[in-house]
Amino acid sequence: MKTALITGASGGIGLEIAHQLASQNYQVTLVARNEEKLQKVMQSLNGNGHSILVVDLTVKEDLEKLAGHIKTVRYNVLINNAGAAVYGKFTEVQIEDHLKVMRLNMDALVVLSYAFLQNASAGDSLVNIGSLIGFSSLPGAAVYAGSKAFVTNFSESLWFEYKNKGIFVMGFNPGATASDFHENAGNTAKEFPKFVVSSVKEVSDKLFAALQERKQPRVVQGWNNKLMLFGFKFLSRKAGIKIMGNLSPGIS
């Protein structure tokens, strides 16, 4: 039986992909901060042998604990899904909140990728969840946008390093998704135009399909998101930033 570990698995995209993998006979380890939510998710999954790990990835000791676990218990798939944003103009947000976003979106992702790839072998897969914002910008969430640009380039570089070993690395990039992510960041997905918002199932379906195909280092989810990126090619960078600033839930 194949095994998978998913961070940020108590809700949103992480929860949905956990269900999808479990339905395909994966044994899933769910990672998040909230034990009660994790227990409910685990009990709802198809199959047996699933487990939970209660970890706060912004806490150094917890991150080291999880990295040690990944080095000891070999997984076929690691999905670095945990991520966060804080909406608001840069200096109107506490600096510690910005740094926490960076620790989760970049530091934790690098540490867990490192632990996983040390023991990975042919056929294994690492999926790092980026964002459409990794190719653009988002005034009102500048640190988040910068962190996702990092994830995009980091993942593509790893794809090249490991492809000849049969180890698949993918940077997966959804757009705005109807989940509690935006509420946690300080706003709602309703702030975005309806046509750019995808459901968690749409995102999960694309992620699973790309994981099965094992072809592309960079995957953008959704025709709407691909269309937006294509359209931005015909704009100046300045014009594109202005558009994103006007759409941003972090600019009031």
Automatic annotation (TrEMBL):
<dbReference type="GO" id="GO:0016020">
    <property type="term" value="C:membrane"/>
</dbReference>
<keyword id="KW-0560">Oxidoreductase</keyword>
<comment type="similarity">
    <text>Belongs to the short-chain dehydrogenases/reductases (SDR) family.</text>
</comment>
<protein>
    <recommendedName>
        <fullName>Short-chain alcohol dehydrogenase</fullName>
    </recommendedName>
</protein>
<dbReference type="InterPro" id="IPR036291">
    <property type="entry name" value="NAD(P)-bd_dom_sf"/>
</dbReference>
<dbReference type="Pfam" id="PF00106">
    <property type="entry name" value="adh_short"/>
</dbReference>
<dbReference type="InterPro" id="IPR002347">
    <property type="entry name" value="SDR_fam"/>
</dbReference>
<dbReference type="GO" id="GO:0016491">
    <property type="term" value="F:oxidoreductase activity"/>
</dbReference>
